[in-house]
């Protein structure tokens, strides 16, 4: 077995691109840094060690909070809905997680969206979800004519 030496710190860097489409046309785009919260980092280590059967699975959207994110967060301030992650891909040290919120979504229609989070699924013997990462962003008024694509990238980097 080969030994791997890390020189420096292992950093978890996250960012989310929020693309708002109005009748199919891109009308706004914002990139925000995210926080992989303490519970998310613990889940990652347990997953690597084979101690957790949970996987990254749900994307949640909410309308609460003031945009600040704390390391101790375990949920959104005011969750409106959860949906299954639309797409995953891994390239090098980057994991891309995407969620597409369609124009016809009734859970968020007429709401001011301003927070989102990545959650694990539940497992047979543990019915709790783990908040892995969370963002606050510039509010978006959800209408019947707009759709939102969340493109969340988590990077593992040695620095």
What would you note in describing this structure?
- There is one protein chain.
- Helices cover 7% and strands 52% of the residues.
- It is mostly beta strands and 159 residues long.
- It has one domain (13-158).
Key terms for this structure?
mainly beta, 5-stranded antiparallel sheet, 10 strands, 7% helix
Quick structural overview:
With 159 residues, the chain is mainly beta. 7% of the residues lie in helices and 52% in strands. A hairpin with a 2-residue loop joins strand 6 and strand 7.
Number of domains: 1
Helical residue percent?
A: under 10%
Q: What's the number of helices?
A: 1
DSSP strand count = 10
Morphology call: globular
The low-pLDDT segments are none
Strand content: over 45%
Our Rg estimate from Cα atoms comes to 16 Å
Blueprint (SSEs and pairs):
Layout lengths: L9 E13 L2 E9 L1 E2 L1 H11 L7 E7 L16 E6 L2 E5 L2 E8 L10 E9 L10 E11 L4 E13 L1
Antiparallel strand pairs: 1-2, 1-10, 3-9, 4-5, 4-8, 6-7, 7-10, 8-9
């Amino acid at each position: 077995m080969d030994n791997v030496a890390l020189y420096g710190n292992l950093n978890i860097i996250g960012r989310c691109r929020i693309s708002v489409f109005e009748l199919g046309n891109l009308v706004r785009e914002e990139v925000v840094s995210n926080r992989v919260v303490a519970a998310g980092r613990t889940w990652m280590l347990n997953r690597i060690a084979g101690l957790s059967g949970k996987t990254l699975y749900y994307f949640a959207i909410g309308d609460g909070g003031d945009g600040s994110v704390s390391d101790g967060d375990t949920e959104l301030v005011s969750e409106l809905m959860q949906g299954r992650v639309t797409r995953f891909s891994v390239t090098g040290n980057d994991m891309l997680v995407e969620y597409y919120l369609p124009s016809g979504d009734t859970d968020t229609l007429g709401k001011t969206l301003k927070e989102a989070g990545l959650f694990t699924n539940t497992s047979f013997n543990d019915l709790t979800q783990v908040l892995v990462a969370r963002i606050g962003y510039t509010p978006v008024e959800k209408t019947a004519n707009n759709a939102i694509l969340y493109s969340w990238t988590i990077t593992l980097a040695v620095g």
